[in-house]
Amino acid sequence: KNLVKKGSYGQERYHEIMRTWGRRCDAVEFFIDRPPGVPMRTDLPSNVISINMTRFLDKSQDHGQDPRSAAIPEKNRYGKHIWEKMWRSWSWVRKHRAHDFEWFVKVDDDCFLFPENIRWFVQARGWSPYDAHYFGHKLYHRSRFGVPYTMIAGATVVWSKATLEIAATKY
User: Fold this and answer.
1) Fewest beta carbons within 10 Å, which of 17, 102, 109, 151?
2) What's the rounded Cα separation, in Å, for the pair 101 and 95?
């Protein structure tokens, strides 16, 4: 089974996705930012997940999840950024959906997904969701010590259940 995680929410794209390729997925969930202290929106579809994706300059260990972080002035907050959004999304998926699916897909909302191609790709290789597999676009970075490392990111990223368990616990 596939769970498709989305990076943002816009009503127009939401409806386009749900009318097209979203119908061919086992589940589709959209993640949107809800800063600390902001009430949960009640007008959202049940598959739109509202979580805090804000990082604070105080470098606190709670990364803004503690309600006391709402007291930090807006000017002292970082804006949303891709890594923070992904970290919080994958952590949420591990906590709430890891037992429901075998494969997890992150897709940007401006992309068109062919879930059948992902299923075929995984099956053709004989991959088990209980082994660590992930694929997508490779990004090459250097650590602050100058050591190169590779990260899979970009418009579409696929993780097996085992990869989700390993990676999300590191976040």
Assistant:
1) 151
2) 12
pLDDT in tens, the chain (171 residues): 445 444 445 688 889 999 999 999 999 998 887 776 777 778 889 998 888 776 554 444 444 455 555 555 555 555 446 677 778 888 899 999 999 999 999 988 888 999 999 999 999 999 999 999 988 876 666 666 666 655 656 678 899 999 999 988 776
- Classify strands 148-160 and 134-142 as parallel, antiparallel or unpaired: antiparallel
Residue with tokens 């598959």: 47
Identity at 15, one-letter amino acid code: H
Are 139 and 157 a contacting pair, CB within 8 Å? no
Written as one letter, the residue type at 43 is: D
Dist CA 156 CA 152 (whole Å): 9
